[in-house]
Design goal:
single chain; 358 residues; alpha/beta; Rossmann fold; eight-stranded mixed beta sheet; binds adenosine-5'-triphosphate; binds magnesium ion
């Protein structure tokens, strides 16, 4: 069986997924810390709007769209960033435009500035683009992706193929017709199909959109190529998915939903983390102590162990089935006394994730 530790040591991309509030961000950060301990140069990409990761990692001023290196006393490195869709899109335009003029035309376009970022799929697509760039970035040898708290969190898996389909769409091809062929923005907008769209969204919006797509001409080849590369990367052996759940029935059900979602995309779960289990506070002594006070403590401890064991067996039972591989490695992490908002607490989570490595 491939353990979580094996994955951490060998993967190039780790994706933490699961339902809301189960501990994806916390797990991603703890995985990053352990990766640095193993000598890897890891970067954690978070989409955590609550900035919990920044708090836990003690990053003054919070995380930004550019990776910052954390101050750890480990042989490897840990970097972190918080994905910002708009800045990522701007960066892509600048990096891929044929010249300064093309970049400026796009960045100043009203459709681009007001609409492009909020179009459905843009955020997912930017997450995929970012993953692509970080994976190729020579500063890092492991990218750990923390996914947002929604059921659609894994939509970024489909974003690259959606983009490819979009680029091949006849409407897109028409919009991209270079103006130098004599078709001015205005003329393109006079095409019957666009006229209809214009009636719905308004002529100005349409003209802006057409101008945007025309300014984009020539860049679509690179976008398509990267999209294909991300599809290959996600499906490849170097990418592993870590499914996070808690021992509650509803979050396990959700975990199975995520596992199914992955399987439908031809991907599989590499490891499972069941977080926030009943803590056990060490092993009980072999014999029940004689003194009444110690015996009462002993009984408590034994009862806690029984609860924890039953909870684990139940979680393992629920996880079984065709959604997950039979031999998937599962780690149980107890609930800590407080939230995980400090490096020390994060280190405690890490020691539960990797008990053998301590
Ligand atoms: N084992 C644990 N013991 C105690 N507190 C925990 C534990 N794991 C996570 N937490 C706390 O629970 C809260 C949710 O954790 P986290 O932010 O990692 O979840 P998430 O799955 O990323 O949430 P979201 O879906 O909102 O992004 C945080 O305040 C975190 O500090
Ligand atoms: Mg989170």
């Amino acid at each position: 069986m491939t353990t979580l530790h094996d994955h951490l040591a060998t993967a190039e991309v780790l994706v933490c997924c699961g339902s809301g509030g189960v501990g994806k961000t916390t797990t991603a950060a703890a995985l990053g810390m352990e990766a640095a301990r193993l000598g890897r140069r890891a970067v954690v990409v978070t989409i955590d709007p609550a900035r919990r990761l920044a708090d836990a990692l003690g990053v003054p001023g919070g995380l930004t769209n550019d990776p910052v290196r954390l101050d750890l006393d480990e042989p490897g490195e840990l970097w972190a960033l918080m994905l910002d869709t708009a800045s990522t899109f701007d960066g892509l335009v600048r990096a891929n435009a044929a010249d300064e003029g093309q970049a400026e035309r796009i960045l100043a376009n009203r459709f681009y500035r007001n609409v492009a970022g909020s179009l459905s799929g843009t955020q997912e697509y930017m997450a995929a683009e970012r993953l692509h760039a970080l994976h190729l970035d020579p500063r890092f040898d492991l990218v750990i992706v923390d996914t947002p708290p929604t059921r659609n969190a894994l939509d970024f898996l489909d974003a690259p193929s959606t983009l490819s389909r979009f680029i091949d769409h006849p409407l897109f091809k028409m919009l991209m017709l270079p103006t130098r062929r004599g078709l001015k923005v205005f003329n393109v907008a006079a095409q019957p199909v666009l006229k209809t769209i214009g009636k719905v969204v308004g002529g100005d919006v349409l003209a802006d959109a057409v101008a945007f797509f025309q300014a984009f001409a020539g860049m679509e080849t690179g976008f398509r190529q990267r999209a294909d590369e991300v599809i290959t990367l996600l499906a490849g052996d170097v990418t592993r998915f870590v499914l996070v759940a808690s021992p509650r029935r509803d979050t396990i059900e959700e975990a199975r939903f995520f596992a199914d979602r992955l399987r439908r995309s031809g991907l599989s779960v590499g490891a499972v983390v069941v977080n926030r289990c009943t803590p056990t506070f060490g092993d009980a002594p072999a014999k029940r102590p004689r003194s009444a006070a110690a015996a009462a403590l002993y009984d408590n401890l034994v009862a806690l162990h029984a609860t924890a064991d039953a909870e684990r067996a139940h979680a393992a039972d629920l996880l079984r089935g065709d959604a997950l591989p039979d031999d998937v490695h599962t780690t149980f992490v107890p609930t800590l006394p407080g939230d995980v908002h400090t490096m020390d607490a994060l280190a405690a989570i890490r020691s539960h994730l990797f008990p053998a490595a301590r």
